[in-house]
Amino acid sequence: MEVIDLNGRTAVPGLIDSHSHLITEGVRLSQLDVSGKSMEEAAAMAGARAAALEPGAWLHGRGWDQNLWPGREWPHRSALDRACPRNPVVIDRVDKHSVWANTMALEAAGVWPGMPCPPGGEIARDPDGTPSGVLVGRVMRVLYARMPLWDGLDPMEAFLAAEREMLSFGLTSVVDCGTRKADFFLLLDAYRNGVPRLRFKAFMQSEPWEEEILGNGPARGLCAGRFSLDGVKLFSDGSLGSQSAWMTEDYADRPGHRGGHNYRDADLEEAMGWVRDRGLQCAIHVIGDAASEQAVRAMGRVLGKGARDRRWRLEHFQVFSEALAREAVGLGLVPSIQSVGLMTDLHMAPDRLGPARIADAYAWRRLLDLGSVIINGSDAPIETPDPLKGIYAACARRDLLWRPKEGFRPGDAMTVGEALMSYTAWPAWACFCEGELGSLGVGKRADFAVLDRDLCETPLEELRHAKALMTVIGGCPVWTSPDF
């Protein structure tokens, strides 16, 4: 037995990211990243990267946010046309719910002036009806269908790159929300051969239904407890940043617009019934209050009195009334949030929602006071997968520059203990593995992280600087910081 002296550092149960996209996060690590840049700067960066490509090769990037630009104007294809005349270019918005493309990419995907837009999507247009270069929601699929999957990277290499990053943050388990069929078998084979170290929990991409994978229900604890098939991910609406989240009332900064949704009530209940009949968990993406209302009520009708035992999940659950919160908690549904995203959203959400409705956004204290657990994650690559940044955001409700000084609706903050539970014991329970993970105790798996400070004794402002120093899975150190 090896004995490791922590020299006064703090050990916490292995941290669990309850909502991430591992292969996509691995792709992001090598992708063009225009985060924080102006439209002109982003186009120039795309031009520099495209200059090294063969003519006609696709360039895919990410990270723009029009809410940071003067006037908050949406980007235009012309800026990319000038910078990248030889290559089709697609750059995802930071939330991946809208894209910015040049003319070459739009033409390659068959996006034309009179093209009808599918429900749940939007094509931004110039005054003459010509697509301006921004696609929102489901219509983005026409571009993705033409692009090389995973930007031509080997998906296993991308997964392992993301794994290395997540281990360095003290994460020992990750829920992958939207696993593709081909990637499921690729990863299962890798786990059977003992390659990855993270505990991986799959929620399969929703449709088309994969009877081959899902027909026999959940399969938990495979590969010595490293690999699990837990459920299915459904996708109801979009995001606040892209103005595609489905709202019951107009956006405050866009009168006449309420976003979009992907399901009629009957279709959603049919999909949930399919999941229920196979004993699987259902996780549904809901951000707008209309999407949340539809999902909560559909789950109530589909599950009835057995809802609490199913541990079905509301992914994001960002805008909800007190009445809907009571309904969701009463059913035993599990709010799955990404508190780290508040550091960005707090600068945008008040304009989207308006002064009255903002009280119903990111209201975590409301849920906790009703007796609900909350599970936390990153939605990487949308946000950093560092759970310590998520704990800081959950408690401080400020960005990393300590803004706003008074905090964003500080009455809805979590305590440090609650925030830590949202990354440990509560997500373990939500994944039906509370007997193995989520706390340190006799008979449980020896998953833990060593931190550079005691979070509960750290001033709130200093939480943003907390770091992991060591990650241990199954009693074996899998990552150690040079600073340890």
Structure report:
The radius of gyration is 22 Å and the shape is globular. It has 484 residues and is α/β, with parallel strands linked by helices. It contains 19 helices and 19 strands. The chain has an eight-stranded parallel sheet with strand order 2-9-10-12-13-14-15-16. A six-stranded mixed sheet has the order 3-4-5-6-8-7. The protein has two domains: 31-149, Diaminopimelate Epimerase, Chain A, domain 1 (Roll); 155-473, Metal-dependent hydrolases (TIM Barrel, Alpha-Beta Barrel). The longest helix has 15 residues, at 289-303. The model has no long low-confidence stretch (mean pLDDT 95). Helix content is 31%, strand content 20%.
Q: Evaluate the radius of gyration.
A: 22 Å
Q: Could you give me the name of the CATH homologous superfamily of the largest domain?
A: Metal-dependent hydrolases
Enumerate how many helices there are, as a single number. 19
Let me know the largest β-sheet: 8 strands, parallel
Q: What is the name of the CATH architecture of the largest domain?
A: Alpha-Beta Barrel
Structural class: alpha/beta
- Uncertain runs: none
The total domain count is 2
Helix content: 25-40%
